[in-house]
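User: Predict the structure for this protein chain, please.
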Amino acid sequence: MPANLFKVNEKEYILPGSRACQGCGLSLAYRYMLKALRENTIVTLPACCLCVLQGMYPSTPVLVPALNNSFASTAASASGLVAGLQALDRSDITVVAMAGDGGTFDMGIQALSGAAERETDFIYVCYDNEGYMNTGTQRSSATPLGALTTTTPILTKQQHKKDFIKIVEAHDIPYLATVSPAYPIDLYDKFVKAKKIKGTRYIHIYAPCPPGWTYPPKDTVKMGRLAVETGVAVLFEVEDGKFRLTGRSKTLAERGNRLPVINYVEKQGRFRRMNIEQLNQLQAWVDRKWDEYIKRADQG
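Assistant: Here is the predicted structure, written as structure tokens:
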């Protein structure tokens, strides 16, 4: 049972009136993330969906300070904030770098890799909605095989999603975790843990997106749960090199009742042109990844 199941911070750090889309998975994740991190948190972010949620100066519904940076420099901006706070002897402030999959998998990878290699003391958060959703649903390297985007409008994306988490883990950082807004207690618990750890920490949010994935806004939690139930998204953490499955993914591993991927893709309009061959390829890819995680969990 998560340590914070009955201790979730009651204070709200996102007030009513954000500019996020209805049913935004990022909004739900951000709400619980800030509850876990609390006051004395600074967020730095690029132009992205989170920038829209934060609002335009001087109006914002968010109660923590945020710094806007260029698309590729989120981790570099966080590194600068850390250096400045160290100079001021403000070790009580948590720096959070937060960007989407485009600003992380693609344009932001070099700054994050450099910061992780230097062991810079901040939390990097990637909210992964599997495309450049803020600029019109273009393909990113996080977009899954068979998905429609505005830059793959006819043939769909022909490649599997980049395994970015493996790339980050290769930097031997002290803490890495995956979370979903559909399982907020698991998310909350991991951010509470990450706040207490020093060095570069990485948390990956699997963030459902109604307009980009083409499903009704009311189904965001359902879509997030289906992603986990099918193994498309896996909840785990790696602390000091030790891997463990968490939450619903741990239960699925113990019971062996993971759902077929079709239960997930058939409910999203972005997969409406996926053919049976692509579906089988996606299922095989998910099965292989799942087996890798099970082996790691068994090894302790």
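The mean pLDDT is 95.
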